[in-house]
Amino acid sequence: MSDAVVSFVSGPVLRARGDAPFAMNEAVLIGAGARLGEVIQIRHPEIVVQVYEDTTGLRPGMEVRRTSGPLAIRVGPGLLGRIFDGLLRPLTNVGEYVRPGVAPVSSELFPFEPLARGGDVLREGAPFGAVREANGRRLRCFAPPGVEGRIAHIVGPGLVSGHETVCTLTDAAGDERPLAVGHDWPVRRPRPVRRRLPFDRPLVTGQRILDTLFPVARGGRAALPGGFGTGKTILQQTLAKWSHADVVVYVGCGERGNEMAEVLEELPAAEDPRTGRPLLERTVIIANTSNMPVAAREASIYTGITVAEYFRDQGLDVALMADSTSRWAEALREISGRLGELPAEAGYPAYLSSRLADFYERAGRVRTMADEDASVTVIGAVSPPGGDFSEPVTKHTERYTRCLWRLDARRAHARQYPAIDPLSSYSSDAARLASWWEAGGSPRWSEQRRRLLALLEEHTHIERMSRIIGTDALPARQQLVLCSASLAIEGFLCQSALSKTDAYCSPARQASMLGLILRWVELGEEALSRGVPVATMAGMPIRRRLVRMGEDIGEGRPGAFDELRVELGHAFAALGGAAP
Ligand SMILES: Nc1ncnc2c1ncn2[C@@H]1O[C@H](COP(=O)(O)OP(=O)(O)O)[C@@H](O)[C@H]1O
Ligand SMILES: [Mg+2]
Predict the structure, then answer these.
(1) E strand or H helix at 515, and its extent?
(2) Band of pLDDT at residue 287, cut at 50, 70 and 90
(3) Is 496 in the pocket of ligand 1 (CB under 6 A)?
(4) 212 by DSSP, 3-state: which?
(5) What one-character DSSP code corresponds to residue 163?
(6) Chain mean position to CA 467
(7) CB of residue 242 inside a 6 A radius of ligand 1
(8) How far is the CA of 385 from the centre of ligand 1 (A)?
């Protein structure tokens, strides 16, 4: 029985005619192979469908069947440590996905433990049981948002699959609602929360330039724009590895398949510095690489954020990285073009901006339906063509994010990684996060952060001037600023993602390192007033040791920084000069 018949196919989009009562965003199945699509326009009796799979071989005359539900994914146990396509179907290998019905995740069995009894009233979002995954993590099973009632039946402890009914509710209308350990959720609809909470805790990333200069709050939103090869992917992967998140959802959107394969290869080996557990265990990867269907790429960021919200609803702090939202926007543009919509800026549809807003608005720190505090932090990479930050995707993304981490081609070229430009980047969360740092062992965080930013600003100003008149013509005080700022850049802001000791830097180590750099700056100013030449200070062996301290002094050695501080004092004292 067909509900409509295909009349026209254009790339990932098709038109069909039929009298069935299709709904907007309804999922449909096309042809004998039941290829998945979604209704994106209704002009009775015609519907327009975007197809989430390869459309080769689809022809006019093929049937389109309704599913009577919106495009949805099944969230539940079995997601962590795995890789999926843009519609959350398991991938065995990047680039070739397993078709629906073949090896579904839910064929796996999980030990179930009931947390409620027959007769109990279950509120929406409240747990009725828990399952343990193979990695040992305990996940609660709850009635999906919007479902509540009295428990008519619940199974005892034992092994269950992701799909079987383990609990039956009788809702207010007297209808039976069967519940499984996982549930379906429409990807385009945000999961509800009790309320939103303020942005007053950082998502520690272990990256000095971010945590100290441009910190992102838990539940915050950051944009990472950068031209080709400036380090977006490396930084996103670094964040996936080291951020203090309980769960990381990594959406590889339209990038090359080998980059995704690399993440997968590296993660199992890497250990979470806080828990000692393999990082892969807390990670869900959603890959819609450049060779995969373009419509599924459009869906992949919604799939990603829905998975993130599911883990948030478990009471966890979740970080979502999307690389790259520009490729997602290009998918939107291609589909819009096929629909013959009137293009706005740079060929993108007029709704690009509102779609970006919808996505970023799903980030947040919240009180969940189960009355716990949890968060989803979103970090979206943007790849502006030709590195032009005024193009529409970058521009609109910057409107909806609270942190802007702009990658600078000049810095990347000079291998100053991460190549974030400290002058054009910002964090709207910094002011609110100061008290977290100041209560947590870095009492001078705000002041030190301000001093570092001021030094970098002065440096840029003087550098510009020195390009005209030459460094030698600068007054000694300005030469010292250049010398101090280059120490701050090399010794503090630069941090190699590939280093064993330095890829991750704890808040305490960041504070120690910044304290030493700023101490060098103070001692340098004193020495200058005693008449010590800047060239002498620039050549001090202790300066080279500060440049290398990130590499040389790993985590858990605060004493080594204290020693360095004492030596620093001696080294400047030994320079002599007239008493001020
Ligand atoms: N933080 C970093 N540490 C070390 N090398 C880096 C870092 N960031 C970028 N690189 C270098 O720059 C190259 C390009 O980075 P990549 O993240 O692929 O750029 P993009 O995704 O912006 O095109 C990498 O292959 C690596 O050699
Ligand atoms: Mg990249």
Answers:
(1) helix 507-529
(2) confident
(3) yes
(4) helix
(5) S
(6) 38
(7) no
(8) 17
Sheet holding 176-179, edge to edge: 121-122, 149-154, 167-170, 176-179
How far apart, in whole angstroms, are the C-alpha atoms of residue 481 and residue 302?
A: 47
Question: In 10 A of CB 211, how many CB atoms?
Answer: 23
| Tokens (6 digits) for 59 | 């022809």
pLDDT more than 70, % of the chain: 96
The dihedral region occupied by 161, where left means phi > 0, alpha psi between -120 and 50, and beta the remainder, is beta
Cβ(230) to ligand 1 under 6 A? yes
Residue 50 corresponds to which amino acid? Q
The burial class, CB within 10 Å (0-12 / 13-18 / 19+), for 269 is exposed
- Mention every residue, 6+ apart, whose C-beta is less than 8 A from residue 220: 199, 203, 363, 377, 378, 402, 403, 429
Is the CB–ligand 1 distance for residue 319 below 6 Å? Answer: no
C-alpha 476, offset from chain centre: 44
Each residue's pLDDT tens digit, 116-155: 999 999 998 889 999 998 888 899 999 888 899 999 999 9
Among 508, 150, 78, smallest CA distance to 307 is for: 78
Task: Output the pLDDT for position 106.
Answer: 52
For the CA atoms of the chain, what is the radius of gyration? 27
What is the DSSP pairing of strand 158-161 with strand 167-170? Answer: unpaired
What are the tens digits of pLDDT across the range 247-281?
999 999 887 777 777 776 777 677 777 778 888 88
**3-state SS string for 122-134:** ECCCCEEEEEECC
Q: Which residues have CB under 8 Å from 467's CB, separation 6+?
A: none
Neighbouring C-beta atoms of residue 547, cutoff 10 Å: 18
Ligand 1 site-directed mutation target among 234, 417, 499, 502, most atoms within 8 Å of CB: 234
Which pair of tokens denotes residue 298?
Answer: 């459009």
CA torsion through residues 501, 505, 508, 512, sign = positive
Ligand 1 centre from 457 Cα, in Å? Answer: 25
- Residues around ion ligand 2, judged by CB within 5 A, are 232-233
Measured CA distances, 359 to 107, 273, 369, 400, 537 (Å): 31, 30, 20, 9, 50
User: How far from the centroid of its chain's Cα atoms is residue 485's Cα?
Assistant: 30
Name residue 154's amino acid: I
Domains in the chain with CATH codes:
4-69 (2.40.30.20), 108-182 (2.40.50.100), 195-429 (3.40.50.300), 445-573 (1.10.1140.10)
